[in-house]
Amino acid sequence: NCQKRLIQELRCMVDASPVGVFASPIDDLNLLKWTGILIGPENTPYSGGKFRLILNFTTDYPNTPPTVNFETRIYHCNVNSHGRICLNILDQDWDPRVSITQVLIAVRELLVHPNPSDPLVGSIATELISAPHSHDKTARRWAQLYADAPIIQTNELQ
User: Fold this and answer.
1) What are the helix and strand counts (H, E) for the chain?
2) For the segment 91-103, what is each residue's pLDDT rounded down to a tens digit?
3) Which own/partner contact pairs does 17-23 have at CB distance under 8 Å and 24+ positions apart?
4) pTM for the structure as a whole
5) N or C terminus: which one in the chain shows less Cβ crowding within 10 Å?
6) Rounded CA separation 55/69 (Å)
7) Fold for domain 2-157?
């Protein structure tokens, strides 16, 4: 049952939220729409940024994956301008045993290891491959502008 599973997952999230991610329903009356916070991982251009996610579930969850979108703008080859995320576990590799916590960890891991071979934004993927320093500088600037990331020296990204 969808409601039962979502309540169970919320309990797990509250009891043992992993470092850098958290999500919960937007309101108590609707368990099908959650908001999440992802903290940009250290040693990435996104370090320290607070990225807001929106998670939508269907009544067929967990048989159908949630849709997870960045609400905060992010400069990333696997996230388009609408916040859509290209991540296999949210699509063809979905498994009903995957938890919301695991989904959030996978999204955060995508910030550490972008996948330019399967991009949603080809120009950013090309820049990541051909001019990584320029890519990281732009990604950092966006993290500061949109995700309230602390200002750090450029050499700290290396």
Assistant:
1) 4, 4
2) 999 999 999 999 9
3) 17/101, 18/101, 18/104, 18/105, 20/108, 21/101, 21/104, 21/105, 21/107, 21/108, 22/104, 23/53, 23/55, 23/100, 23/104
4) 0.92
5) C
6) 7
7) Ubiquitin Conjugating Enzyme (3.10.110)
* Contact between 40 and 111 (Cβ < 8 Å): yes
12 among known catalytic residues: no
Beta strands in 114-154 (DSSP E): none
Minimum mean pLDDT range among 16-25, 49-58, 83-92: 16-25
Residue 153 predicted with pLDDT over 60: no
Tokens of 30: 């609707």
The domain locations on the chain are: 2-157
Both structure tokens of 7: 């309540």
From the candidates 2, 12, 77, 86, which is the catalytic residue? 86
